Amino acid sequence: MDRETIKRLAAENGTPLLIMDHGQIRKNYQEFRERLPRVQIYYAIKANSEPEIIKTLLKLGASFDVASLSEFNLIFDLVKHLEPAGLQNFIWNNIIYANPVKKPDSLHVLNLYKPLLTYDSIEEMRKIRIHSPDAGLLLRIKISDEGSVVKLSNKFGIDPEQAVDLIEKTIREGLTVEGISFHAGSQCNKPRNFVKALRTVSEIFKEVASKGYAIGETVTKGYPIKIVDIGGGFPVKYSGDEQSFGGLADIINKEIDRLFSKDEVLLLAEPGRFLVANAGTEVASVILAKRSTDIPSYHIDDGVYHTFSALVYDHIPIKVRSIKDGEPRECRLFGPTCDGLDTLSENTYIHNTGKIFLPELDEGDLVYAENMGAYTTASSTNFNGMPPAKVVHINL
Ligand SMILES: Cc1ncc(COP(=O)(O)O)c(C=O)c1O
After folding, report:
1. What is the dihedral of CA 2, 361, 277, 234, to 10 degrees?
2. What spacing in Å lies between the alpha carbon of 396 and ligand 1's midpoint?
3. Count of domains observed in the chain
4. From the CA of 5, how far away is ligand 1's center (Å)?
Protein backbone atom coordinates (compact mmCIF):
# COMPACT_ATOMS: atom_id res chain seq x y z
CA MET A 1 0.00 0.00 0.00
CA ASP A 2 1.40 3.43 -0.87
CA ARG A 3 2.49 5.76 1.89
CA GLU A 4 0.14 8.59 0.91
CA THR A 5 -2.89 6.31 1.40
CA ILE A 6 -1.53 5.15 4.77
CA LYS A 7 -0.99 8.78 5.87
CA ARG A 8 -4.43 9.88 4.71
CA LEU A 9 -6.22 6.99 6.42
CA ALA A 10 -4.26 7.50 9.65
CA ALA A 11 -5.18 11.22 9.61
CA GLU A 12 -8.86 10.38 9.05
CA ASN A 13 -9.14 7.50 11.52
CA GLY A 14 -6.36 7.95 14.08
CA THR A 15 -3.98 5.20 15.18
CA PRO A 16 -3.48 2.36 15.92
CA LEU A 17 -5.15 1.37 12.69
CA LEU A 18 -5.41 -1.82 10.66
CA ILE A 19 -6.19 -1.11 7.00
CA MET A 20 -7.81 -4.07 5.21
CA ASP A 21 -7.72 -3.91 1.40
CA HIS A 22 -10.64 -5.89 0.00
CA GLY A 23 -9.25 -5.68 -3.55
CA GLN A 24 -6.38 -7.86 -2.29
CA ILE A 25 -8.77 -10.24 -0.49
CA ARG A 26 -10.69 -10.74 -3.76
CA LYS A 27 -7.40 -11.39 -5.61
CA ASN A 28 -6.35 -13.98 -3.02
CA TYR A 29 -9.71 -15.74 -3.22
CA GLN A 30 -9.51 -15.79 -7.02
CA GLU A 31 -5.97 -17.16 -6.94
CA PHE A 32 -6.98 -19.93 -4.54
CA ARG A 33 -9.92 -20.89 -6.78
CA GLU A 34 -7.81 -20.93 -9.91
CA ARG A 35 -4.92 -22.86 -8.41
CA LEU A 36 -7.02 -25.43 -6.54
CA PRO A 37 -10.12 -25.68 -8.74
CA ARG A 38 -11.46 -28.88 -7.18
CA VAL A 39 -11.42 -27.50 -3.67
CA GLN A 40 -14.35 -25.65 -2.04
CA ILE A 41 -13.05 -22.69 -0.02
CA TYR A 42 -14.17 -22.41 3.62
CA TYR A 43 -12.61 -19.19 4.95
CA ALA A 44 -11.31 -19.85 8.51
CA ILE A 45 -12.72 -16.74 10.09
CA LYS A 46 -10.53 -17.11 13.17
CA ALA A 47 -7.79 -15.43 11.09
CA ASN A 48 -9.77 -12.19 10.97
CA SER A 49 -13.46 -12.20 11.83
CA GLU A 50 -14.33 -8.65 10.72
CA PRO A 51 -17.93 -8.79 9.39
CA GLU A 52 -16.91 -6.70 6.34
CA ILE A 53 -14.45 -9.44 5.34
CA ILE A 54 -17.12 -12.11 5.75
CA LYS A 55 -19.47 -10.02 3.57
CA THR A 56 -16.87 -9.65 0.81
CA LEU A 57 -16.17 -13.38 0.78
CA LEU A 58 -19.86 -14.22 0.93
CA LYS A 59 -20.40 -12.14 -2.22
CA LEU A 60 -17.65 -14.15 -3.93
CA GLY A 61 -19.42 -17.39 -3.03
CA ALA A 62 -17.11 -18.53 -0.24
CA SER A 63 -18.01 -20.98 2.50
CA PHE A 64 -16.85 -20.59 6.11
CA ASP A 65 -14.97 -22.48 8.84
CA VAL A 66 -16.03 -21.47 12.36
CA ALA A 67 -14.45 -22.37 15.68
CA SER A 68 -17.23 -21.34 18.08
CA LEU A 69 -20.91 -20.56 18.27
CA SER A 70 -20.18 -16.84 18.23
CA GLU A 71 -18.23 -17.21 14.96
CA PHE A 72 -21.14 -19.25 13.59
CA ASN A 73 -23.48 -16.40 14.55
CA LEU A 74 -21.36 -13.85 12.66
CA ILE A 75 -22.26 -15.69 9.47
CA PHE A 76 -25.75 -16.62 10.55
CA ASP A 77 -26.57 -12.91 11.04
CA LEU A 78 -25.74 -12.26 7.40
CA VAL A 79 -27.90 -15.09 6.00
CA LYS A 80 -30.77 -15.34 8.46
CA HIS A 81 -33.08 -13.44 6.07
CA LEU A 82 -33.09 -16.49 3.72
CA GLU A 83 -36.31 -18.52 3.64
CA PRO A 84 -36.06 -21.62 5.92
CA ALA A 85 -35.10 -24.15 3.22
CA GLY A 86 -32.52 -21.78 1.71
CA LEU A 87 -31.06 -21.06 5.16
CA GLN A 88 -30.77 -24.78 5.94
CA ASN A 89 -29.12 -25.42 2.58
CA PHE A 90 -26.69 -22.58 3.11
CA ILE A 91 -25.66 -23.98 6.49
CA TRP A 92 -25.25 -27.54 5.12
CA ASN A 93 -23.27 -26.45 2.13
CA ASN A 94 -21.31 -23.48 3.40
CA ILE A 95 -20.40 -23.78 7.08
CA ILE A 96 -18.13 -26.20 8.89
CA TYR A 97 -17.57 -26.09 12.65
CA ALA A 98 -13.95 -27.27 12.50
CA ASN A 99 -12.94 -27.03 16.14
CA PRO A 100 -12.65 -30.69 17.23
CA VAL A 101 -13.63 -29.73 20.80
CA LYS A 102 -16.99 -28.05 21.29
CA LYS A 103 -19.06 -26.88 24.23
CA PRO A 104 -22.16 -29.04 24.83
CA ASP A 105 -24.52 -26.05 24.83
CA SER A 106 -23.14 -24.87 21.45
CA LEU A 107 -23.71 -28.35 20.02
CA HIS A 108 -27.23 -28.30 21.38
CA VAL A 109 -28.05 -25.01 19.62
CA LEU A 110 -26.41 -26.08 16.37
CA ASN A 111 -28.21 -29.41 16.11
CA LEU A 112 -31.24 -27.58 14.76
CA TYR A 113 -29.24 -26.91 11.57
CA LYS A 114 -27.72 -30.41 11.17
CA PRO A 115 -24.23 -28.88 11.05
CA LEU A 116 -21.01 -30.28 9.62
CA LEU A 117 -18.59 -30.84 12.54
CA THR A 118 -15.13 -32.22 13.11
CA TYR A 119 -14.15 -34.50 16.01
CA ASP A 120 -11.07 -36.48 16.93
CA SER A 121 -11.95 -38.69 19.91
CA ILE A 122 -14.53 -41.17 21.14
CA GLU A 123 -15.36 -38.81 24.00
CA GLU A 124 -16.22 -35.92 21.66
CA MET A 125 -18.19 -38.33 19.46
CA ARG A 126 -20.29 -39.36 22.47
CA LYS A 127 -20.83 -35.70 23.36
CA ILE A 128 -21.99 -35.03 19.79
CA ARG A 129 -24.34 -38.04 19.95
CA ILE A 130 -26.05 -36.55 23.00
CA HIS A 131 -26.14 -32.88 22.00
CA SER A 132 -26.04 -32.80 18.19
CA PRO A 133 -27.14 -36.22 16.89
CA ASP A 134 -28.23 -34.83 13.51
CA ALA A 135 -24.79 -33.45 12.66
CA GLY A 136 -22.55 -34.71 9.85
CA LEU A 137 -19.10 -35.64 11.14
CA LEU A 138 -15.58 -35.39 9.77
CA LEU A 139 -12.93 -37.29 11.68
CA ARG A 140 -9.78 -35.21 12.08
CA ILE A 141 -6.59 -37.21 11.82
CA LYS A 142 -3.18 -36.29 13.18
CA ILE A 143 -0.60 -35.63 10.48
CA SER A 144 2.92 -34.26 10.40
CA ASP A 145 3.15 -30.50 10.90
CA GLU A 146 6.93 -30.46 10.66
CA GLY A 147 8.05 -27.33 8.81
CA SER A 148 4.88 -25.42 9.64
CA VAL A 149 5.26 -22.22 11.64
CA VAL A 150 2.21 -22.79 13.87
CA LYS A 151 1.82 -26.33 15.19
CA LEU A 152 -1.55 -27.99 15.73
CA SER A 153 -0.84 -31.72 15.81
CA ASN A 154 0.32 -31.63 19.44
CA LYS A 155 -3.30 -30.97 20.35
CA PHE A 156 -5.56 -32.28 17.61
CA GLY A 157 -6.16 -35.32 15.46
CA ILE A 158 -6.56 -39.01 16.09
CA ASP A 159 -3.66 -41.30 15.25
CA PRO A 160 -4.50 -42.54 11.70
CA GLU A 161 -4.05 -46.14 12.90
CA GLN A 162 -7.06 -45.71 15.20
CA ALA A 163 -9.20 -43.86 12.67
CA VAL A 164 -11.02 -46.83 11.13
CA ASP A 165 -11.95 -48.21 14.52
CA LEU A 166 -13.41 -44.85 15.62
CA ILE A 167 -15.29 -44.44 12.33
CA GLU A 168 -16.87 -47.90 12.80
CA LYS A 169 -17.85 -47.03 16.38
CA THR A 170 -19.29 -43.69 15.28
CA ILE A 171 -21.43 -45.28 12.59
CA ARG A 172 -22.57 -47.99 15.01
CA GLU A 173 -23.67 -45.27 17.44
CA GLY A 174 -26.04 -44.06 14.71
CA LEU A 175 -24.09 -40.96 13.68
CA THR A 176 -23.26 -39.91 10.13
CA VAL A 177 -19.59 -39.87 9.18
CA GLU A 178 -19.16 -37.73 6.10
CA GLY A 179 -15.39 -37.83 5.72
CA ILE A 180 -11.95 -37.02 7.07
CA SER A 181 -10.17 -33.77 7.85
CA PHE A 182 -6.60 -32.82 8.65
CA HIS A 183 -4.52 -29.67 9.16
CA ALA A 184 -0.86 -29.50 8.19
CA GLY A 185 -0.14 -26.65 10.64
CA SER A 186 -0.40 -22.97 9.78
CA GLN A 187 2.05 -21.39 7.32
CA CYS A 188 3.07 -24.83 6.06
CA ASN A 189 6.37 -24.89 4.21
CA LYS A 190 6.44 -28.64 3.51
CA PRO A 191 4.18 -29.82 0.65
CA ARG A 192 5.08 -33.38 1.63
CA ASN A 193 2.87 -33.06 4.72
CA PHE A 194 -0.15 -32.61 2.43
CA VAL A 195 0.91 -35.47 0.16
CA LYS A 196 1.33 -37.91 3.04
CA ALA A 197 -1.95 -36.79 4.61
CA LEU A 198 -3.91 -37.27 1.36
CA ARG A 199 -2.46 -40.76 0.95
CA THR A 200 -3.41 -41.60 4.53
CA VAL A 201 -6.99 -40.43 3.94
CA SER A 202 -7.25 -42.54 0.80
CA GLU A 203 -6.04 -45.62 2.73
CA ILE A 204 -8.59 -44.99 5.49
CA PHE A 205 -11.42 -44.71 2.95
CA LYS A 206 -10.39 -48.04 1.39
CA GLU A 207 -10.18 -49.82 4.72
CA VAL A 208 -13.55 -48.54 5.90
CA ALA A 209 -15.16 -49.67 2.62
CA SER A 210 -13.51 -53.10 2.88
CA LYS A 211 -15.20 -53.57 6.25
CA GLY A 212 -18.59 -52.85 4.74
CA TYR A 213 -19.12 -49.45 6.34
CA ALA A 214 -20.13 -46.44 4.30
CA ILE A 215 -18.61 -43.01 4.72
CA GLY A 216 -20.56 -40.24 3.07
CA GLU A 217 -23.98 -41.89 3.00
CA THR A 218 -25.27 -38.59 4.20
CA VAL A 219 -28.74 -38.51 5.58
CA THR A 220 -28.85 -34.77 5.93
CA LYS A 221 -27.50 -33.67 2.60
CA GLY A 222 -29.06 -36.43 0.56
CA TYR A 223 -26.07 -37.41 -1.53
CA PRO A 224 -23.57 -40.19 -1.06
CA ILE A 225 -20.25 -38.43 -1.30
CA LYS A 226 -17.19 -38.54 0.87
CA ILE A 227 -15.61 -35.33 2.12
CA VAL A 228 -11.87 -34.75 2.33
CA ASP A 229 -11.14 -31.56 4.24
CA ILE A 230 -7.52 -30.56 3.64
CA GLY A 231 -7.58 -27.85 6.33
CA GLY A 232 -5.57 -24.63 6.24
CA GLY A 233 -1.85 -23.97 6.27
CA PHE A 234 -1.49 -22.35 2.82
CA PRO A 235 1.61 -20.17 3.08
CA VAL A 236 1.97 -16.41 2.67
CA LYS A 237 5.14 -14.59 1.53
CA TYR A 238 6.32 -12.74 4.64
CA SER A 239 10.07 -12.63 4.11
CA GLY A 240 10.18 -14.14 0.61
CA ASP A 241 11.86 -17.41 1.61
CA GLU A 242 8.63 -19.30 2.17
CA GLN A 243 7.18 -22.17 0.14
CA SER A 244 5.16 -20.67 -2.74
CA PHE A 245 1.41 -21.24 -2.70
CA GLY A 246 1.47 -22.02 -6.45
CA GLY A 247 4.06 -24.77 -6.00
CA LEU A 248 2.11 -26.29 -3.12
CA ALA A 249 -1.14 -26.15 -5.10
CA ASP A 250 0.42 -27.99 -8.07
CA ILE A 251 1.54 -30.80 -5.78
CA ILE A 252 -1.85 -31.03 -4.05
CA ASN A 253 -3.73 -31.07 -7.39
CA LYS A 254 -1.61 -33.89 -8.71
CA GLU A 255 -2.19 -35.98 -5.63
CA ILE A 256 -5.94 -35.39 -5.37
CA ASP A 257 -6.43 -36.21 -9.05
CA ARG A 258 -4.50 -39.43 -8.55
CA LEU A 259 -6.31 -40.50 -5.39
CA PHE A 260 -9.88 -39.19 -5.46
CA SER A 261 -12.47 -39.40 -8.21
CA LYS A 262 -14.55 -36.29 -8.85
CA ASP A 263 -17.82 -38.22 -8.59
CA GLU A 264 -17.11 -39.71 -5.19
CA VAL A 265 -15.15 -37.15 -3.24
CA LEU A 266 -15.82 -33.54 -2.32
CA LEU A 267 -12.71 -31.60 -1.36
CA LEU A 268 -12.78 -28.71 1.08
CA ALA A 269 -10.06 -26.43 2.45
CA GLU A 270 -10.10 -23.98 5.34
CA PRO A 271 -7.65 -21.23 4.36
CA GLY A 272 -7.39 -18.38 6.85
CA ARG A 273 -4.06 -16.62 6.56
CA PHE A 274 -3.80 -17.00 2.77
CA LEU A 275 -6.97 -15.01 2.11
CA VAL A 276 -6.34 -12.05 4.42
CA ALA A 277 -2.72 -11.71 5.64
CA ASN A 278 -1.30 -9.66 2.76
CA ALA A 279 -4.45 -7.52 2.64
CA GLY A 280 -3.69 -5.91 6.02
CA THR A 281 -1.42 -2.95 6.81
CA GLU A 282 -1.01 -1.83 10.40
CA VAL A 283 -0.24 1.82 11.23
CA ALA A 284 0.91 3.20 14.59
CA SER A 285 2.10 6.59 15.88
CA VAL A 286 5.15 7.40 17.94
CA ILE A 287 3.90 8.59 21.33
CA LEU A 288 7.35 9.17 22.84
CA ALA A 289 10.75 9.53 21.18
CA LYS A 290 13.59 9.25 23.74
CA ARG A 291 16.98 10.30 22.47
CA SER A 292 18.58 10.61 25.91
CA THR A 293 19.15 6.83 25.87
CA ASP A 294 22.25 5.12 24.36
CA ILE A 295 20.30 4.31 21.23
CA PRO A 296 16.97 6.02 20.38
CA SER A 297 13.90 4.46 22.03
CA TYR A 298 10.52 4.88 20.42
CA HIS A 299 7.24 4.10 22.19
CA ILE A 300 4.37 3.58 19.76
CA ASP A 301 0.61 3.21 20.32
CA ASP A 302 0.37 -0.45 19.21
CA GLY A 303 2.28 -3.41 20.62
CA VAL A 304 2.58 -6.99 21.75
CA TYR A 305 -0.74 -6.98 23.65
CA HIS A 306 -2.50 -5.60 20.58
CA THR A 307 -1.92 -6.02 16.81
CA PHE A 308 1.66 -7.22 17.33
CA SER A 309 0.34 -10.14 19.42
CA ALA A 310 1.05 -11.97 16.15
CA LEU A 311 4.70 -12.01 17.22
CA VAL A 312 3.80 -14.15 20.23
CA TYR A 313 0.94 -16.33 19.01
CA ASP A 314 1.53 -16.48 15.28
CA HIS A 315 5.36 -16.40 15.28
CA ILE A 316 5.50 -14.50 11.98
CA PRO A 317 8.33 -12.11 11.12
CA ILE A 318 7.09 -8.49 11.21
CA LYS A 319 9.01 -5.67 9.57
CA VAL A 320 8.23 -2.24 11.00
CA ARG A 321 8.85 0.65 8.56
CA SER A 322 8.71 4.40 8.81
CA ILE A 323 6.55 6.68 6.69
CA LYS A 324 9.23 9.33 7.01
CA ASP A 325 12.43 8.85 4.94
CA GLY A 326 15.85 9.11 6.52
CA GLU A 327 19.04 7.25 7.34
CA PRO A 328 18.04 4.07 9.24
CA ARG A 329 19.60 3.85 12.71
CA GLU A 330 19.33 1.10 15.25
CA CYS A 331 16.60 1.83 17.78
CA ARG A 332 14.47 0.23 20.48
CA LEU A 333 10.77 -0.06 19.79
CA PHE A 334 8.19 -0.44 22.55
CA GLY A 335 4.42 -0.92 22.67
CA PRO A 336 2.18 1.33 24.78
CA THR A 337 1.44 -0.81 27.88
CA CYS A 338 3.19 -0.88 31.25
CA ASP A 339 4.72 -4.32 30.71
CA GLY A 340 8.36 -4.87 29.73
CA LEU A 341 7.23 -7.76 27.54
CA ASP A 342 5.62 -5.15 25.31
CA THR A 343 8.84 -4.72 23.33
CA LEU A 344 9.10 -5.19 19.56
CA SER A 345 12.89 -5.05 19.15
CA GLU A 346 15.23 -7.76 20.43
CA ASN A 347 12.76 -9.16 22.94
CA THR A 348 14.44 -12.14 24.62
CA TYR A 349 11.04 -13.66 25.40
CA ILE A 350 9.89 -13.53 21.77
CA HIS A 351 12.20 -15.47 19.46
CA ASN A 352 11.17 -13.81 16.19
CA THR A 353 12.10 -10.28 17.23
CA GLY A 354 15.47 -8.81 16.26
CA LYS A 355 17.24 -5.51 15.87
CA ILE A 356 15.13 -2.72 14.37
CA PHE A 357 16.52 0.11 12.23
CA LEU A 358 14.41 3.22 11.58
CA PRO A 359 15.09 6.83 10.58
CA GLU A 360 15.17 9.35 13.43
CA LEU A 361 11.57 9.69 14.58
CA ASP A 362 9.65 12.32 16.51
CA GLU A 363 6.45 12.19 18.50
CA GLY A 364 3.51 11.93 16.10
CA ASP A 365 5.49 10.24 13.30
CA LEU A 366 3.91 7.17 11.76
CA VAL A 367 5.30 3.65 11.45
CA TYR A 368 3.61 0.79 9.59
CA ALA A 369 3.88 -2.94 8.94
CA GLU A 370 2.58 -4.96 5.98
CA ASN A 371 1.13 -8.50 5.83
CA MET A 372 -0.75 -7.89 9.08
CA GLY A 373 -4.25 -9.05 8.09
CA ALA A 374 -4.23 -12.49 9.76
CA TYR A 375 -3.98 -13.47 13.44
CA THR A 376 -3.24 -9.87 14.55
CA THR A 377 -6.32 -7.98 15.72
CA ALA A 378 -7.81 -11.48 16.20
CA SER A 379 -5.61 -11.99 19.26
CA SER A 380 -5.51 -8.39 20.44
CA THR A 381 -6.43 -7.66 24.08
CA ASN A 382 -7.72 -4.65 26.05
CA PHE A 383 -4.72 -4.79 28.38
CA ASN A 384 -4.12 -1.55 30.32
CA GLY A 385 -7.50 -0.30 29.10
CA MET A 386 -6.15 0.11 25.58
CA PRO A 387 -8.57 -1.21 22.97
CA PRO A 388 -7.51 -3.13 19.85
CA ALA A 389 -6.60 -1.14 16.73
CA LYS A 390 -9.48 0.33 14.76
CA VAL A 391 -10.03 -1.57 11.50
CA VAL A 392 -10.76 0.37 8.34
CA HIS A 393 -11.82 -1.32 5.08
CA ILE A 394 -10.87 -0.03 1.63
CA ASN A 395 -11.82 -1.09 -1.91
CA LEU A 396 -15.02 -2.69 -0.67
C1 LIG B 1 -9.19 -26.11 12.15
C2 LIG B 1 -8.49 -25.00 11.48
N3 LIG B 1 -8.78 -24.74 10.19
C4 LIG B 1 -8.19 -23.74 9.51
C5 LIG B 1 -7.25 -22.93 10.12
C6 LIG B 1 -6.64 -21.84 9.32
O7 LIG B 1 -5.32 -22.10 9.05
P8 LIG B 1 -4.47 -21.13 8.12
O9 LIG B 1 -4.68 -19.75 8.60
O10 LIG B 1 -3.10 -21.62 8.27
O11 LIG B 1 -4.95 -21.32 6.71
C12 LIG B 1 -6.87 -23.18 11.46
C13 LIG B 1 -5.85 -22.37 12.11
O14 LIG B 1 -5.47 -22.57 13.22
C15 LIG B 1 -7.54 -24.24 12.15
O16 LIG B 1 -7.25 -24.50 13.44
Report:
1. 110
2. 25
3. 2
4. 31
